[in-house]
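Technical note accompanying the year-one report. For the benefit of new consortium partners, we illustrate the data format agreed upon in the data management plan: each record pairs a sequence with a structure-token string. No post-processing was applied to the example shown here.
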Amino acid sequence: MMLEFDVLSLFPEIVSAPLSQSIIGRAAGSGLLCVRSHNIRDWTHDKHHRTDDYLCGGGQGMLMKCEPIFEAVEELRRENTRVILMTPQGRVLTQQLVRELAAPCMEPQGGAHYIIICGHYEGVDQRVVDKLVDLELSIGDYILTNGAIAAVVLIDAVSRLTPGALGDERSGEEESFSDGLLEAPAYTKPIEFLGMTVPEVLLSGNHKAMAEWKQERAVERTRANRPDLYEKWAAEHPEFFRPGKKKTKPTHYKERPAP
């Protein structure tokens, strides 16, 4: 089995193009996942292929109609399908939720099938939400021109956790949010550049010291950039702050002379 997505959108090309590239494109080529992008207009029956109408009770903009979405989901749904609606009113996507959506693929012979409905205009008729949708998702507190863009973000985030997609399975375990923190700063060659040097601990070969340094820098970065995450992590890890715990001294650019 594999990870499968059927995406319902008025702009299927927005979904198809970016997901054919890079890691996700290679994973699809290897048979690890399949993304099918459909135009909702294919399930309309009037000569104008209309998918929207005016809001009942008045209001600005147009609303996506029930009929084509219901027909599309009915045709594409399987026994194990979950239907997701991309909407600003949905639950905010997090790495924890991404892992939950990818979890069925972690099991032996596992797989998952998701139908993603992409909103447009003023969204979709509420009866679509009430009858068809299992999960409403938002990728953040801002508004996009249409849900296809958000669907690409969701598919990319979930697909890269499919076993085999990243090549090195540790990559998904050692990145930002995997343990509740942002990633520590990272460096590569040259060792010295414009007077800035790689922190000496990363060149020491001492794996324990390097791990401690990375955790401490990850905590510092999270505290500075995402205090909301930091407060949650700190509350769950009181042992990190216990008196007498040895800390690695922060290494700044000019503390180590250039070779």
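Partners are asked to follow this layout when depositing records. The longest helix spans residues 207-225.
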